[in-house]
Structure formats: C-alpha cells, structure tokens
From TrEMBL:
Alphabetical list of Pfam families matching this protein: Phage_int_SAM_4, Phage_integrase
Alphabetical list of HAMAP family matching this protein: Recomb_XerA
Domain Tyr recombinase: 112-279
Coiled coil: none
A GO BP annotation: DNA transposition
Protein's job: Site-specific tyrosine recombinase, which acts by catalyzing the cutting and rejoining of the recombining DNA molecules.
Principal location: cytoplasm
Protein name: Tyrosine recombinase XerA
Amino acid sequence: MRLQLGEPPKDADPFQYFIQSLKLSGAGQGTIKLYYSAINDFLKFVNKNPNEVTTQDVINWINVLSVREGRSKTGDRKGRASTIRSYVIAVRRFLRWLGVNVRPPVPRIRTPERRALRESEIENIISSCKRLRDRALISLLLDTGLRSSELLSITVGDLDLQERTIRVRETKNGEERIVFFTARTASLLNQFIRKTKKGENERVFEITYQALYKLVKRLGKKNGISWLRPHILRHTFATNAIKKGAPLPVVQRLLGHKDIKTTQIYTHLMTDDLKRVYRDVFEG
C-alpha cells in the first residue's frame, strides 16, 4: 500500500505535518514511530531549515549515526545496521516529499541468516522457563510467529482462549490479522491470566522490548544457543510451518507479510538445509 501524504504545507511545520499525514494515511504505529525518531534526530543534527538541506548534510549525519550506533550496547551488529538503513530511508523520503533534491547513499546490510530452532531445542527452552509468564510468552511466540512489538501490544480482550485465536491490531503494516495457538499455549495463558487477574483492556505481557530481548537471550545462553533472539522464534515458526506443508500464502498471512517474496525467504532456507544435508551424507 502506497501512502498518500499530500502536498507539503507553506506555513505549517513540515515535520509535524508529515508525521500527521502518515497517521491520517493509515501508516502503522511502528512506521510512524520510526519516521518520527529518524527525522527528529536528523533535524536536530543539521539544525537548519529542512528545505536548505544538502546531500553532504545527510552524509555527515549518517557518519555520526553510524558511530553512535556502533557504540550502542543494545541489540546486535546486524540490528544496528538495519536501524541506520531504516533511518536513512525515512529521512530521504521526508526530504523528497519536501521537494529537496538530495541523493544520500542508503547503507547496505547483508541479508541475515534465517536460523531456526530444532524440536529438541524448543522443548528445552520452554522447560527451562522458571516463571509461568515466561513459558506462556515463549510458547505463544513459537506458536504464532508474532513480531515482538505485536506480542507486547496484545490485550486480554484480544485473546479468545476457547477458539485459541488472537486479534492482532497493532501490526507493522497497519492491517489487523488473526493468528492461532495450540491447546498447550492456551492452558498456559489461561493459568497466567487467572493468576494475575488481568482485565480485558490490560496488556497480557506487561514488559518492555528490552526485557523481552534479555529474557530470550538469557534462555538461549542457558541452553547453549548463543544466537537466540526474539526474531529467531518468528523464523522458527515460519520454517516449521512450511516444512509441515502449510501453503506459502497461508504462512504469509499468519506472519503479516505484505509481500509474499518476504515469506519465500524461508523456502530458500529449506533448500539450503537440504543442500547441506546432501553434501554431508554423500560428499562428507
């Protein structure tokens, strides 16, 4: 979906107008937050009228942003590279909307390897969760392939424990979708919600993304999986769904991908796995 943002204003603040236009055009909360953070950071750096910005201004900002993100202890190197790229794309789109002719280079990032957990690793991770909340959270991520932001936005009212469905409202592309989970996860969620006595409008998991990231990383380290991160649970769901015969369009809808080409990455992963096994067996 191509967002219709209209023409830049003559008198109003272009930054605030741009953000408001994003909201009115139906952009997702994640997109709006990203654009706000990126453009706000850039405008503070250049400290000038955005209509007077040059390509060199943008390049200088990218260099400073790269140094700053490189020093950050949050996330991993690929994640930080992805953040820089997303910031640059957001600023470039804002400037083009203003009619400012700049051609900043967009940093390239290497396509990350789509690792997936084995069945034994999945069971070990769930078993190693000491808290009921953590077992329910990890099980739900593995059952649904939800993005971290989607998981943390779910309220009790979004759940239907009898039908074992979730209405995901705060999505990356702004489009609601329904996802499903197993009876085991339904039991864990039911126990957790009853124990915490949460109301319909309360979030199921009252934790921050940073806390979620640390939890998953710690569980990985505990089970000898140093590379475990929240997005790996999403990759695991997608890979297992395809391996078990789920049609690609179905997996696309469950994951909330706008473009099926994104979902096809997981079929390429399986081809790579088959090639690796073949070579180990016949050429090893």
